[in-house]
Amino acid sequence: MNITINDRIIECEPGELLIEVARKNNIAIPTLCYLKDVCHSSNCRICMCDVNGRLIPACSAKVSENMVVNTDNDKVRNSRVKTLQLIMSTHHKDCDNCEKNRKCKLQDLFEEYDVKPFNQNYVKNTYRIDESSPCIIRDDNKCILCGRCMNVCANTQSVYALCKQQRGFKTFMGCAFDNDIFDSPCIGCGQCVLVCPTGALMENTEINQVKKLLNNPDYYVTCQVAPSVRVALAEEFGAPIGTFDEGRMVTALKKLGFKKVFDINMGADFTIYEEANELIDRIQNGGKLPQFTSCCPGWFAFIEKNYPDLKENLSTCKSPTEMVGALVKDYFSKQNNIAQENIKVVDIMPCTAKKQEKKRATDVDNALTTRELAKMIKDAGIDYMNLEPSPFDTPFDEYTSAGLIFGVSGGVMEAALRFAAEKLTGNKDKVDFEEVRNSNGVKEVEVKCGEVTLRLAIVSGLGNARRVVEEIKSGKKNYDFVEIMACPGGCINGGGQPFVDYDKTPVEEVKRLRSKAIMDADKGATARISSENKFMTELYNSYINNRELAHKLFHWRHE
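Predicted structure:
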Protein backbone atom coordinates (compact mmCIF):
# COMPACT_ATOMS: atom_id res chain seq x y z
CA MET A 1 0.00 0.00 0.00
CA ASN A 2 0.99 3.67 -0.27
CA ILE A 3 1.30 6.43 2.28
CA THR A 4 2.49 10.01 1.96
CA ILE A 5 5.40 11.31 4.05
CA ASN A 6 6.51 14.92 3.56
CA ASP A 7 4.73 15.04 0.18
CA ARG A 8 6.44 11.83 -1.02
CA ILE A 9 4.40 8.80 -2.05
CA ILE A 10 5.97 5.81 -0.31
CA GLU A 11 5.16 2.15 -0.77
CA CYS A 12 5.10 0.03 2.40
CA GLU A 13 3.64 -3.09 3.96
CA PRO A 14 0.53 -3.07 6.18
CA GLY A 15 1.41 -3.21 9.87
CA GLU A 16 4.88 -1.64 9.55
CA LEU A 17 5.78 1.00 12.09
CA LEU A 18 5.78 4.52 10.72
CA ILE A 19 9.26 5.22 12.12
CA GLU A 20 10.72 2.20 10.33
CA VAL A 21 9.04 3.07 7.02
CA ALA A 22 10.46 6.60 7.30
CA ARG A 23 13.98 5.38 8.07
CA LYS A 24 13.94 2.92 5.16
CA ASN A 25 13.31 5.92 2.95
CA ASN A 26 16.00 8.11 4.56
CA ILE A 27 13.51 10.31 6.39
CA ALA A 28 14.82 11.12 9.85
CA ILE A 29 12.48 11.02 12.84
CA PRO A 30 14.23 11.69 16.16
CA THR A 31 13.63 9.55 19.22
CA LEU A 32 15.11 8.94 22.64
CA CYS A 33 13.29 5.78 23.72
CA TYR A 34 12.60 3.75 20.59
CA LEU A 35 15.15 1.11 19.63
CA LYS A 36 14.23 -1.49 17.05
CA ASP A 37 13.72 -4.98 18.53
CA VAL A 38 14.52 -3.62 22.00
CA CYS A 39 12.27 -0.77 23.16
CA HIS A 40 8.84 0.20 21.78
CA SER A 41 7.55 1.97 24.86
CA SER A 42 6.56 5.38 23.39
CA ASN A 43 7.92 7.01 26.54
CA CYS A 44 9.78 10.06 25.29
CA ARG A 45 7.25 11.47 22.77
CA ILE A 46 10.06 13.05 20.74
CA CYS A 47 9.00 11.15 17.61
CA MET A 48 5.57 12.80 17.40
CA CYS A 49 4.52 13.40 13.80
CA ASP A 50 1.56 15.11 12.19
CA VAL A 51 -0.57 12.24 10.89
CA ASN A 52 -3.73 13.36 9.09
CA GLY A 53 -3.82 16.46 11.30
CA ARG A 54 -3.16 14.72 14.63
CA LEU A 55 0.08 14.34 16.58
CA ILE A 56 0.94 10.64 16.87
CA PRO A 57 4.15 8.91 18.08
CA ALA A 58 5.83 7.38 15.04
CA CYS A 59 7.42 4.59 17.07
CA SER A 60 4.07 2.97 17.87
CA ALA A 61 1.91 4.10 14.93
CA LYS A 62 1.33 1.43 12.31
CA VAL A 63 0.92 2.61 8.74
CA SER A 64 -2.49 2.53 7.10
CA GLU A 65 -3.80 3.21 3.61
CA ASN A 66 -3.91 6.89 2.62
CA MET A 67 -1.98 7.98 5.70
CA VAL A 68 -0.58 11.51 5.21
CA VAL A 69 2.41 12.30 7.41
CA ASN A 70 4.47 15.39 8.06
CA THR A 71 7.55 14.78 10.17
CA ASP A 72 8.79 18.36 10.56
CA ASN A 73 6.16 21.08 10.33
CA ASP A 74 5.61 23.83 12.92
CA LYS A 75 3.15 21.76 14.93
CA VAL A 76 5.63 18.87 15.15
CA ARG A 77 8.61 21.07 16.01
CA ASN A 78 6.69 22.94 18.72
CA SER A 79 5.67 19.63 20.26
CA ARG A 80 9.26 18.37 20.29
CA VAL A 81 10.59 21.64 21.74
CA LYS A 82 8.07 21.57 24.59
CA THR A 83 8.83 17.93 25.34
CA LEU A 84 12.56 18.65 25.41
CA GLN A 85 11.99 21.64 27.69
CA LEU A 86 10.09 19.42 30.11
CA ILE A 87 12.93 16.90 30.08
CA MET A 88 15.44 19.70 30.60
CA SER A 89 13.49 21.04 33.59
CA THR A 90 14.39 18.00 35.71
CA HIS A 91 17.63 16.91 34.04
CA HIS A 92 21.14 17.20 35.44
CA LYS A 93 22.68 19.69 33.00
CA ASP A 94 26.40 19.69 33.83
CA CYS A 95 27.21 18.55 30.30
CA ASP A 96 30.84 19.68 30.28
CA ASN A 97 31.67 17.31 33.13
CA CYS A 98 29.55 14.41 31.91
CA GLU A 99 31.33 11.32 30.53
CA LYS A 100 28.78 11.25 27.70
CA ASN A 101 29.47 14.83 26.60
CA ARG A 102 29.29 15.17 22.78
CA LYS A 103 28.00 11.58 22.55
CA CYS A 104 24.66 12.22 24.23
CA LYS A 105 21.50 11.86 22.18
CA LEU A 106 19.64 14.28 24.45
CA GLN A 107 22.38 16.90 24.08
CA ASP A 108 22.20 16.52 20.29
CA LEU A 109 18.46 17.17 20.32
CA PHE A 110 18.81 20.19 22.61
CA GLU A 111 21.20 21.68 20.07
CA GLU A 112 19.21 20.64 16.98
CA TYR A 113 15.99 22.22 18.29
CA ASP A 114 17.75 25.15 20.01
CA VAL A 115 16.02 24.32 23.29
CA LYS A 116 16.29 26.83 26.10
CA PRO A 117 15.02 26.39 29.68
CA PHE A 118 11.65 27.95 30.42
CA ASN A 119 10.38 29.53 33.63
CA GLN A 120 8.48 26.78 35.34
CA ASN A 121 9.11 25.19 38.71
CA TYR A 122 8.93 21.42 38.81
CA VAL A 123 9.93 18.90 41.44
CA LYS A 124 13.58 18.04 40.90
CA ASN A 125 14.91 15.04 42.78
CA THR A 126 18.53 14.47 43.67
CA TYR A 127 19.71 10.89 43.56
CA ARG A 128 22.79 9.27 44.97
CA ILE A 129 25.16 7.82 42.38
CA ASP A 130 25.33 4.03 42.56
CA GLU A 131 28.98 2.97 42.21
CA SER A 132 28.59 -0.39 43.95
CA SER A 133 29.24 -2.45 40.81
CA PRO A 134 32.81 -2.82 39.53
CA CYS A 135 31.34 -2.71 36.01
CA ILE A 136 28.66 -0.05 35.81
CA ILE A 137 27.82 3.31 37.43
CA ARG A 138 24.16 4.36 37.64
CA ASP A 139 23.38 8.09 37.93
CA ASP A 140 19.62 8.71 38.00
CA ASN A 141 20.21 12.46 37.97
CA LYS A 142 20.89 12.06 34.24
CA CYS A 143 18.15 9.51 33.55
CA ILE A 144 15.23 10.52 31.29
CA LEU A 145 13.18 7.34 31.97
CA CYS A 146 13.26 6.31 28.32
CA GLY A 147 13.17 2.64 29.31
CA ARG A 148 15.86 1.43 26.90
CA CYS A 149 18.06 0.00 29.66
CA MET A 150 15.16 -1.78 31.35
CA ASN A 151 13.99 -3.30 28.08
CA VAL A 152 17.38 -4.52 26.86
CA CYS A 153 18.10 -5.97 30.31
CA ALA A 154 14.76 -7.77 30.49
CA ASN A 155 13.81 -8.60 26.91
CA THR A 156 17.22 -9.15 25.29
CA GLN A 157 19.28 -10.37 28.23
CA SER A 158 16.56 -11.82 30.53
CA VAL A 159 18.48 -10.48 33.53
CA TYR A 160 15.79 -8.13 34.92
CA ALA A 161 18.18 -6.02 36.97
CA LEU A 162 16.49 -2.66 36.26
CA CYS A 163 12.93 -1.43 36.68
CA LYS A 164 11.03 1.80 37.25
CA GLN A 165 10.42 2.75 40.88
CA GLN A 166 7.82 5.09 42.43
CA ARG A 167 5.36 7.24 40.43
CA GLY A 168 4.95 10.71 38.97
CA PHE A 169 7.82 13.13 39.52
CA LYS A 170 9.34 10.66 41.99
CA THR A 171 9.80 7.99 39.33
CA PHE A 172 13.35 6.75 38.85
CA MET A 173 15.09 3.81 37.22
CA GLY A 174 16.58 1.47 39.78
CA CYS A 175 16.94 -2.09 40.95
CA ALA A 176 14.25 -4.08 42.74
CA PHE A 177 13.64 -2.96 46.34
CA ASP A 178 15.92 0.00 45.56
CA ASN A 179 18.96 -2.24 45.97
CA ASP A 180 22.38 -1.29 44.66
CA ILE A 181 23.40 -2.76 41.32
CA PHE A 182 25.89 -4.97 43.15
CA ASP A 183 23.03 -6.64 45.04
CA SER A 184 20.83 -7.02 41.96
CA PRO A 185 20.75 -9.76 39.29
CA CYS A 186 23.07 -7.57 37.13
CA ILE A 187 25.89 -9.56 35.50
CA GLY A 188 27.82 -6.52 34.25
CA CYS A 189 27.41 -7.11 30.50
CA GLY A 190 26.96 -3.38 29.84
CA GLN A 191 24.28 -3.70 27.16
CA CYS A 192 22.29 -1.13 29.14
CA VAL A 193 25.23 1.27 28.83
CA LEU A 194 25.34 0.84 25.04
CA VAL A 195 21.68 1.77 24.59
CA CYS A 196 21.41 4.57 27.18
CA PRO A 197 20.93 7.87 25.27
CA THR A 198 22.39 9.96 28.12
CA GLY A 199 25.12 9.51 30.74
CA ALA A 200 22.82 7.81 33.27
CA LEU A 201 24.65 4.50 32.80
CA MET A 202 28.39 4.33 32.21
CA GLU A 203 31.24 1.94 32.86
CA ASN A 204 32.90 2.21 36.26
CA THR A 205 36.07 3.76 34.92
CA GLU A 206 39.54 2.68 36.00
CA ILE A 207 41.41 5.34 34.02
CA ASN A 208 42.79 7.11 37.10
CA GLN A 209 43.94 3.82 38.62
CA VAL A 210 45.78 2.91 35.43
CA LYS A 211 47.37 6.35 35.22
CA LYS A 212 48.70 5.91 38.78
CA LEU A 213 50.27 2.61 37.77
CA LEU A 214 51.88 4.17 34.70
CA ASN A 215 53.23 7.08 36.75
CA ASN A 216 54.77 4.83 39.40
CA PRO A 217 58.45 4.16 38.51
CA ASP A 218 58.48 1.04 40.70
CA TYR A 219 55.97 -0.74 38.46
CA TYR A 220 56.57 -2.52 35.19
CA VAL A 221 53.18 -2.00 33.55
CA THR A 222 52.08 -4.21 30.67
CA CYS A 223 48.78 -4.35 28.83
CA GLN A 224 47.04 -6.93 26.68
CA VAL A 225 44.48 -6.25 23.98
CA ALA A 226 41.41 -8.30 23.08
CA PRO A 227 40.56 -9.20 19.46
CA SER A 228 37.46 -6.99 19.18
CA VAL A 229 39.19 -3.81 20.33
CA ARG A 230 41.21 -3.61 17.12
CA VAL A 231 38.05 -3.51 14.96
CA ALA A 232 36.38 -0.75 17.01
CA LEU A 233 38.95 1.62 18.54
CA ALA A 234 39.52 3.64 15.35
CA GLU A 235 35.81 4.51 15.27
CA GLU A 236 36.47 6.83 18.23
CA PHE A 237 38.78 8.85 15.97
CA GLY A 238 36.50 9.16 12.96
CA ALA A 239 37.28 5.95 11.08
CA PRO A 240 34.42 3.91 9.56
CA ILE A 241 32.74 1.24 11.68
CA GLY A 242 34.68 -2.01 11.46
CA THR A 243 38.10 -0.52 10.67
CA PHE A 244 40.75 -3.15 11.47
CA ASP A 245 43.59 -1.30 13.19
CA GLU A 246 46.27 -3.10 15.19
CA GLY A 247 49.39 -1.09 14.45
CA ARG A 248 48.28 2.40 15.47
CA MET A 249 46.59 0.96 18.54
CA VAL A 250 49.87 -0.61 19.72
CA THR A 251 51.78 2.63 19.06
CA ALA A 252 49.23 4.64 21.05
CA LEU A 253 49.51 2.26 24.00
CA LYS A 254 53.30 2.60 23.94
CA LYS A 255 52.96 6.39 23.94
CA LEU A 256 50.71 6.14 26.98
CA GLY A 257 53.58 4.49 28.83
CA PHE A 258 52.95 0.75 28.75
CA LYS A 259 56.26 -1.13 28.80
CA LYS A 260 54.89 -4.04 26.80
CA VAL A 261 51.78 -4.44 24.67
CA PHE A 262 50.74 -8.08 24.38
CA ASP A 263 48.07 -9.71 22.25
CA ILE A 264 45.33 -11.69 23.96
CA ASN A 265 45.07 -13.78 20.79
CA MET A 266 48.03 -15.68 22.22
CA GLY A 267 45.95 -16.47 25.29
CA ALA A 268 43.10 -17.59 23.04
CA ASP A 269 45.40 -20.19 21.48
CA PHE A 270 46.21 -21.51 24.95
CA THR A 271 42.50 -21.51 25.76
CA ILE A 272 41.74 -23.61 22.69
CA TYR A 273 44.48 -26.09 23.57
CA GLU A 274 43.22 -26.51 27.11
CA GLU A 275 39.49 -26.33 26.34
CA ALA A 276 39.55 -28.73 23.39
CA ASN A 277 41.54 -31.26 25.37
CA GLU A 278 39.10 -30.88 28.26
CA LEU A 279 36.17 -31.52 25.90
CA ILE A 280 37.82 -34.61 24.41
CA ASP A 281 38.52 -35.89 27.92
CA ARG A 282 34.88 -35.35 29.00
CA ILE A 283 33.57 -37.16 25.92
CA GLN A 284 35.97 -40.09 26.19
CA ASN A 285 35.80 -40.52 29.96
CA GLY A 286 32.16 -39.79 30.75
CA GLY A 287 32.61 -36.25 32.03
CA LYS A 288 29.75 -33.82 32.56
CA LEU A 289 28.20 -32.66 29.31
CA PRO A 290 27.49 -30.35 27.70
CA GLN A 291 30.68 -28.43 28.31
CA PHE A 292 30.01 -24.68 28.39
CA THR A 293 32.65 -22.17 27.37
CA SER A 294 33.89 -20.10 30.31
CA CYS A 295 35.72 -17.17 28.67
CA CYS A 296 32.81 -14.69 28.82
CA PRO A 297 32.61 -13.12 32.32
CA GLY A 298 29.02 -11.96 31.81
CA TRP A 299 27.94 -15.52 31.01
CA PHE A 300 30.02 -16.84 33.92
CA ALA A 301 28.23 -14.48 36.31
CA PHE A 302 24.87 -15.41 34.77
CA ILE A 303 25.45 -19.09 35.54
CA GLU A 304 26.59 -18.31 39.08
CA LYS A 305 23.50 -16.19 39.82
CA ASN A 306 20.86 -18.17 37.93
CA TYR A 307 22.02 -21.77 37.48
CA PRO A 308 24.61 -22.61 40.17
CA ASP A 309 23.73 -26.29 39.74
CA LEU A 310 25.27 -26.13 36.23
CA LYS A 311 28.56 -24.59 37.29
CA GLU A 312 30.24 -27.98 36.85
CA ASN A 313 29.33 -27.79 33.15
CA LEU A 314 31.49 -24.70 32.71
CA SER A 315 34.90 -25.40 31.29
CA THR A 316 37.54 -25.15 33.99
CA CYS A 317 39.66 -23.04 31.64
CA LYS A 318 40.35 -19.42 32.47
CA SER A 319 39.57 -16.81 29.85
CA PRO A 320 42.33 -15.89 27.34
CA THR A 321 43.13 -12.66 29.20
CA GLU A 322 43.51 -14.51 32.50
CA MET A 323 45.83 -17.00 30.82
CA VAL A 324 48.07 -14.27 29.39
CA GLY A 325 47.98 -12.50 32.76
CA ALA A 326 49.13 -15.69 34.48
CA LEU A 327 51.95 -16.15 31.97
CA VAL A 328 53.07 -12.53 32.34
CA LYS A 329 53.24 -12.75 36.12
CA ASP A 330 54.82 -16.19 36.15
CA TYR A 331 56.84 -16.94 33.01
CA PHE A 332 57.57 -13.40 31.77
CA SER A 333 58.51 -12.03 35.20
CA LYS A 334 60.98 -14.86 35.75
CA GLN A 335 62.49 -14.58 32.27
CA ASN A 336 63.08 -10.85 32.76
CA ASN A 337 64.02 -10.88 36.47
CA ILE A 338 61.10 -8.67 37.47
CA ALA A 339 59.63 -9.11 40.93
CA GLN A 340 56.14 -10.50 40.52
CA GLU A 341 54.64 -7.87 42.83
CA ASN A 342 56.10 -5.11 40.62
CA ILE A 343 54.70 -6.32 37.32
CA LYS A 344 51.22 -5.02 36.55
CA VAL A 345 48.78 -6.27 33.92
CA VAL A 346 46.07 -4.08 32.38
CA ASP A 347 43.35 -5.52 30.17
CA ILE A 348 42.06 -3.56 27.17
CA MET A 349 38.63 -5.01 26.55
CA PRO A 350 35.39 -4.56 24.58
CA CYS A 351 33.67 -5.62 27.76
CA THR A 352 32.48 -4.01 31.01
CA ALA A 353 32.11 -7.42 32.70
CA LYS A 354 35.89 -7.95 32.58
CA LYS A 355 36.05 -5.44 35.42
CA GLN A 356 34.40 -8.01 37.68
CA GLU A 357 36.33 -10.97 36.26
CA LYS A 358 39.56 -9.58 37.69
CA LYS A 359 37.96 -9.78 41.12
CA ARG A 360 38.02 -13.56 40.71
CA ALA A 361 41.47 -13.77 39.09
CA THR A 362 44.58 -12.27 40.65
CA ASP A 363 46.63 -12.11 37.45
CA VAL A 364 44.98 -8.96 36.06
CA ASP A 365 45.22 -5.67 37.94
CA ASN A 366 42.93 -3.37 35.93
CA ALA A 367 40.56 -3.56 33.00
CA LEU A 368 39.82 -0.74 30.55
CA THR A 369 37.09 -0.72 27.93
CA THR A 370 37.66 0.34 24.33
CA ARG A 371 35.97 3.63 25.21
CA GLU A 372 38.26 4.22 28.20
CA LEU A 373 41.35 3.58 26.09
CA ALA A 374 40.11 6.08 23.49
CA LYS A 375 39.58 8.66 26.23
CA MET A 376 43.12 8.14 27.57
CA ILE A 377 44.53 8.58 24.07
CA LYS A 378 42.54 11.79 23.56
CA ASP A 379 43.43 13.15 27.00
CA ALA A 380 47.11 12.58 26.24
CA GLY A 381 46.81 14.66 23.06
CA ILE A 382 47.90 11.79 20.83
CA ASP A 383 47.09 12.28 17.13
CA TYR A 384 45.85 8.72 16.72
CA MET A 385 45.04 8.61 13.02
CA ASN A 386 48.51 9.85 12.06
CA LEU A 387 50.48 7.37 14.17
CA GLU A 388 52.93 4.97 12.59
CA PRO A 389 51.99 1.32 13.21
CA SER A 390 53.93 -0.88 15.66
CA PRO A 391 53.88 -4.65 16.22
CA PHE A 392 52.82 -6.38 19.42
CA ASP A 393 55.64 -7.23 21.82
CA THR A 394 57.34 -10.58 22.23
CA PRO A 395 56.99 -13.17 23.59
CA PHE A 396 53.18 -12.92 23.39
CA ASP A 397 53.00 -11.65 19.83
CA GLU A 398 52.96 -14.95 17.98
CA TYR A 399 49.42 -16.10 17.59
CA THR A 400 47.07 -17.69 15.10
CA SER A 401 43.89 -16.23 13.69
CA ALA A 402 42.01 -18.93 15.60
CA GLY A 403 42.49 -16.62 18.57
CA LEU A 404 41.41 -13.57 16.59
CA ILE A 405 37.98 -15.00 15.76
CA PHE A 406 37.15 -15.26 19.48
CA GLY A 407 35.77 -11.74 18.97
CA VAL A 408 32.69 -12.90 17.03
CA SER A 409 29.86 -15.19 18.02
CA GLY A 410 30.82 -18.71 16.92
CA GLY A 411 34.52 -17.88 16.90
CA VAL A 412 35.43 -19.86 20.00
CA MET A 413 33.52 -22.83 18.61
CA GLU A 414 35.22 -22.62 15.22
CA ALA A 415 38.67 -22.23 16.74
CA ALA A 416 38.06 -25.30 18.93
CA LEU A 417 36.79 -27.29 15.94
CA ARG A 418 39.88 -26.44 13.90
CA PHE A 419 42.08 -27.77 16.70
CA ALA A 420 39.91 -30.80 17.50
CA ALA A 421 39.55 -31.77 13.84
CA GLU A 422 43.32 -31.82 13.41
CA LYS A 423 43.84 -33.77 16.63
CA LEU A 424 41.12 -36.35 15.91
CA THR A 425 41.87 -36.84 12.20
CA GLY A 426 45.60 -36.14 12.07
CA ASN A 427 45.30 -33.69 9.18
CA LYS A 428 44.47 -30.05 8.50
CA ASP A 429 42.07 -30.55 5.63
CA LYS A 430 39.24 -28.78 7.44
CA VAL A 431 39.92 -25.23 8.60
CA ASP A 432 36.80 -23.25 7.73
CA PHE A 433 33.73 -24.32 9.70
CA GLU A 434 31.23 -21.96 8.13
CA GLU A 435 28.36 -23.97 9.59
CA VAL A 436 28.98 -22.42 13.04
CA ARG A 437 29.10 -18.83 11.75
CA ASN A 438 26.42 -16.18 11.34
CA SER A 439 24.22 -17.18 14.24
CA ASN A 440 21.18 -15.00 14.84
CA GLY A 441 21.23 -15.83 18.53
CA VAL A 442 21.04 -19.63 18.63
CA LYS A 443 22.53 -22.02 16.11
CA GLU A 444 22.60 -25.80 16.40
CA VAL A 445 24.92 -27.94 14.29
CA GLU A 446 26.40 -31.40 14.21
CA VAL A 447 30.00 -31.64 13.03
CA LYS A 448 31.86 -34.85 12.27
CA CYS A 449 35.50 -34.91 13.35
CA GLY A 450 37.01 -38.21 12.37
CA GLU A 451 34.91 -40.92 14.00
CA VAL A 452 33.34 -38.46 16.46
CA THR A 453 30.16 -36.51 15.77
CA LEU A 454 29.91 -33.41 17.95
CA ARG A 455 26.55 -31.90 18.86
CA LEU A 456 27.10 -28.16 19.16
CA ALA A 457 25.22 -24.97 19.97
CA ILE A 458 26.36 -21.39 19.43
CA VAL A 459 24.50 -18.84 21.54
CA SER A 460 24.80 -15.07 21.97
CA GLY A 461 22.62 -12.86 24.13
CA LEU A 462 21.61 -14.04 27.58
CA GLY A 463 17.90 -14.22 26.74
CA ASN A 464 18.82 -16.87 24.20
CA ALA A 465 21.18 -18.48 26.71
CA ARG A 466 18.39 -18.82 29.27
CA ARG A 467 16.14 -20.58 26.73
CA VAL A 468 18.92 -22.98 25.71
CA VAL A 469 19.84 -23.77 29.31
CA GLU A 470 16.20 -24.46 30.20
CA GLU A 471 15.93 -26.84 27.24
CA ILE A 472 19.08 -28.64 28.36
CA LYS A 473 17.80 -28.94 31.92
CA SER A 474 14.44 -30.29 30.75
CA GLY A 475 16.10 -32.88 28.52
CA LYS A 476 14.69 -31.42 25.30
CA LYS A 477 18.17 -30.68 23.96
CA ASN A 478 21.42 -32.59 24.21
CA TYR A 479 24.76 -31.10 23.24
CA ASP A 480 28.42 -31.90 23.73
CA PHE A 481 29.74 -28.35 23.58
CA VAL A 482 27.98 -24.99 23.90
CA GLU A 483 29.55 -21.62 23.21
CA ILE A 484 27.76 -18.78 24.99
CA MET A 485 28.54 -15.08 24.76
CA ALA A 486 26.58 -12.66 26.94
CA CYS A 487 26.43 -9.87 24.38
CA PRO A 488 24.34 -10.28 21.20
CA GLY A 489 26.78 -10.94 18.37
CA GLY A 490 29.66 -11.62 20.75
CA CYS A 491 32.50 -9.36 21.87
CA ILE A 492 32.32 -7.13 18.78
CA ASN A 493 29.13 -5.80 20.37
CA GLY A 494 30.46 -5.77 23.93
CA GLY A 495 29.25 -3.28 26.52
CA GLY A 496 32.58 -1.41 26.44
CA GLN A 497 32.67 -0.76 22.69
CA PRO A 498 32.30 2.73 21.14
CA PHE A 499 28.88 4.34 21.26
CA VAL A 500 27.00 4.28 17.97
CA ASP A 501 23.89 6.23 17.03
CA TYR A 502 21.59 3.28 16.37
CA ASP A 503 19.03 5.60 14.76
CA LYS A 504 21.53 6.11 11.94
CA THR A 505 23.35 2.77 11.95
CA PRO A 506 21.30 -0.20 13.23
CA VAL A 507 23.02 -2.48 15.70
CA GLU A 508 22.81 -5.39 13.24
CA GLU A 509 24.86 -3.40 10.74
CA VAL A 510 27.41 -2.52 13.44
CA LYS A 511 27.80 -6.19 14.31
CA ARG A 512 28.08 -7.17 10.65
CA LEU A 513 30.82 -4.64 9.87
CA ARG A 514 32.95 -5.45 12.90
CA SER A 515 32.52 -9.20 12.40
CA LYS A 516 33.46 -8.93 8.75
CA ALA A 517 36.69 -7.11 9.66
CA ILE A 518 37.71 -9.97 11.95
CA MET A 519 36.74 -12.74 9.55
CA ASP A 520 38.51 -11.03 6.64
CA ALA A 521 41.69 -10.86 8.72
CA ASP A 522 41.31 -14.54 9.62
CA LYS A 523 40.88 -15.49 5.97
CA GLY A 524 44.13 -13.77 5.05
CA ALA A 525 46.18 -15.21 7.92
CA THR A 526 48.94 -17.77 7.35
CA ALA A 527 48.45 -19.62 10.67
CA ARG A 528 44.78 -20.38 11.40
CA ILE A 529 44.88 -23.36 13.78
CA SER A 530 45.98 -22.97 17.40
CA SER A 531 48.35 -25.92 17.10
CA GLU A 532 50.39 -23.84 14.62
CA ASN A 533 51.41 -21.44 17.39
CA LYS A 534 55.10 -22.35 17.69
CA PHE A 535 55.70 -20.34 20.86
CA MET A 536 52.84 -22.13 22.59
CA THR A 537 54.22 -25.51 21.58
CA GLU A 538 57.72 -24.58 22.77
CA LEU A 539 56.36 -23.28 26.09
CA TYR A 540 54.45 -26.50 26.72
CA ASN A 541 57.59 -28.52 25.96
CA SER A 542 60.10 -26.41 27.89
CA TYR A 543 58.21 -24.68 30.71
CA ILE A 544 54.64 -25.91 31.20
CA ASN A 545 55.77 -29.50 31.02
CA ASN A 546 53.37 -30.95 33.57
CA ARG A 547 49.61 -30.82 34.02
CA GLU A 548 49.90 -29.54 37.59
CA LEU A 549 51.52 -26.30 36.42
CA ALA A 550 49.13 -26.07 33.46
CA HIS A 551 46.15 -26.28 35.82
CA LYS A 552 47.67 -23.71 38.15
CA LEU A 553 48.22 -21.23 35.33
CA PHE A 554 45.27 -21.88 33.08
CA HIS A 555 42.34 -23.25 35.09
CA TRP A 556 40.09 -21.56 37.62
CA ARG A 557 39.00 -24.84 39.18
CA HIS A 558 41.72 -27.35 39.97
CA GLU A 559 40.90 -31.05 39.88
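Summary: The longest strand covers residues 452-460.
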